[in-house]
Amino acid sequence: IDHRNRGMRTRLGCLSHKSDSYNDFTAILPDKPNRALKRLSTEEATRWADSFDVLLSHKYGLAAFQAFLKTEFSEENLEFWLACEDFKKTRSAAKLAAKAQRIFEEFIDVQAPREVNIDFQTRELTRRNMQEPSLSCFDQAQGKVHSLMEKDSYPRFLRSKIYTDLLSQTQRRLS
């Protein structure tokens, strides 16, 4: 029971968190947060500032970035990017069209529940690609969203209290 209560408190804490500060990293690190923090080195966390793709390729970097986007109410961009990455791994032709339709309806279509910020031309190209879905039908939209996150959200993440608190927490372990 205690384990379930802690998980619920973590989720509720995330919802009610007003600032982007995280002194308790249980809300953003997947798996077992205390063990994750012990495994996360300052060097690894510092490398996230080297490039946006380094951040996205690191399990804990991705989790921290996702937590930051939630504080800014813009997590749909990352969720779309992740959905596209998963979509590209689809091997079943039978599942391809259905998965593509779900992604389109959730993120691309006008008035989609988690509509991403893309221009009209990209939206229309993606709509045309949906007539014969392929593993590359979202490439342009995914590229636009990646570029937007890299130019806008990523620099703010590196200046955020989430990232600086996480860095100082890993450095404190070394002292």
UniProtKB/TrEMBL annotation:
GO terms for biological process: negative regulation of signal transduction. It is a peripheral membrane protein. Transmembrane segments: none annotated. Keywords: Cell membrane, Cell projection, Membrane, Nucleus, Signal transduction inhibitor. It is found in: Cell membrane; Cell projection, Dendrite; Nucleus; Perikaryon. CDD domains: RGS_RGS8 (cd08711). The keyword Cell membrane applies. GO terms for cellular component: dendrite; nucleus; perikaryon; plasma membrane. Residues 51-167 form the RGS domain. This is Regulator of G-protein signaling 8. It comes from Galbula dea. The lineage of its organism: Eukaryota, Metazoa, Chordata, Craniata, Vertebrata.
